[in-house]
Amino acid sequence: MSSKKSQDELDLLSPDYQHVGRHRSRRKGKARLVEYSVLLVIGLLLGTGGFFGLQYINNGTILAVSTPKVTSSDGVDLTTPIAVYDASGTRKFASPVGQLLLDAQFIVPVSATGHIPVSFTYIRVTDAKYIPLAQKLLPIIGDYKIKVNPKSKYLITIILGRNYKLPN
């Protein structure tokens, strides 16, 4: 059995059953909408502040800055991306040719292998203004024809056919 406890001052007070606890009524819809709106604004401010803060830390600037064009001594824009497409049927030329162009400081975002073989190697450009840049590629990959095709997916595409041989 439990031991008997001695009485103290709180035990001597008479119980007051009229004020048992504080009962709250439900908040009205307007009060809930105001609280939700305040929380939404605070969340948006924190989110956008964090986003721009991380952008500033990552790039050193908040807004994107255009990259300057790199041109050769004869005025040819060297920042134009060049795609390499291996259509030789051997699946072994796309990566080495892409690497040759990267080593020569050209921009090569795509080096892919195709499923439909092509007989002859050529360089396809979407506009005649890219022909000077395509001519700068000829000493690197070999002397091949340049064709203009405005429906091409990339501005400059090197199509490596069955007759392609890697330069030494």
Keywords, separated by commas or semicolons:
4 helices; 2 domains; 168 residues; alpha/beta; 5 strands
Could you walk me through the main structural features you see in this protein, from its secondary elements to its overall organization?
The protein is an alpha/beta fold. The chain contains 4 helices and 5 strands. The model has no long low-confidence stretch (mean pLDDT 84).
Q: How many domains, in number, for the residues?
A: 2
- Kindly report the spatial arrangement of strands forming the biggest sheet: 2-1-5-3-4
Category from helices, strands and their pairing: alpha/beta
User: What percent of residues adopt helix (DSSP H or I)?
Assistant: 25-40%
Please trace the helix and strand order, writing H or E for each element: HHEHEEHEE
Radius of gyration, Cα only, in angstroms?
36 Å
Mean of all residue-level pLDDT scores: 84
Strand content: 5-15%
Specify the number of helices.
4
Outline, from the CA principal axes?
A: elongated
Quantity of strands, as a count: 5
Secondary structure topology:
Blueprint (H helix, E strand, L loop, with lengths): L8 H4 L16 H31 L22 E5 L7 H10 L6 E4 L8 E4 L5 H11 L3 E4 L7 E5 L8
Parallel strand pairs: 1-2, 1-5, 3-4
Antiparallel strand pairs: 3-5
Short description:
By secondary structure, the chain is α/β, with parallel strands linked by helices. It has helices at 9-12, 29-59, 94-103, 131-141, and strands at 82-86, 110-113, 122-125, 145-148, 156-160.
